[in-house]
Design brief:
Length: 110
């Protein structure tokens, strides 16, 4: 029998995450799930610290999720990069979650 870490949840279908960033509501949190590369998902809070946009409404570029409003990008660690490099006026970085693929689903410890 396969061991599942406590607090683990199946968030969405792998194919869906490969097609586009997915917004997932889980225990009162809004998360965005996307594919950093073919075999590596990313899961962070679905909120941009710059202007509270939904990151799930953005797109993926070179493995980073791009905010649809002002094009800040976020890696799977939740750290931001901004055009021009100025992120100091932002709120806290989105929380990042341990995540993995199991079967045809993306899982995370939330
Ligand atoms: S709201 Fe996301 S970059 Fe401005």
């Amino acid at each position: 029998m396969k061991q599942v870490p406590s607090g683990s949840r199946a968030l969405c279908a792998l194919e869906a995450a490969r097609e586009a960033p997915q917004r997932v509501l889980c225990d009162g949190r809004a998360l965005v799930v996307w594919m950093v590369d073919e075999d590596r998902p990313g899961v962070i809070d679905d909120r941009c610290p710059h202007g509270n946009a939904r990151l799930s409404a953005g797109y993926v570029l070179y493995g980073r999720i791009v905010c649809p409003l002002h094009m800040w990008t976020f890696g799977p660690d939740g750290r931001a990069q901004a055009p021009g490099g100025r992120t100091e006026a932002a709120g806290p970085a989105p929380r990042a979650y341990d995540c993995w693929i199991s079967g045809d689903q993306v899982w995370a410890r939330v």
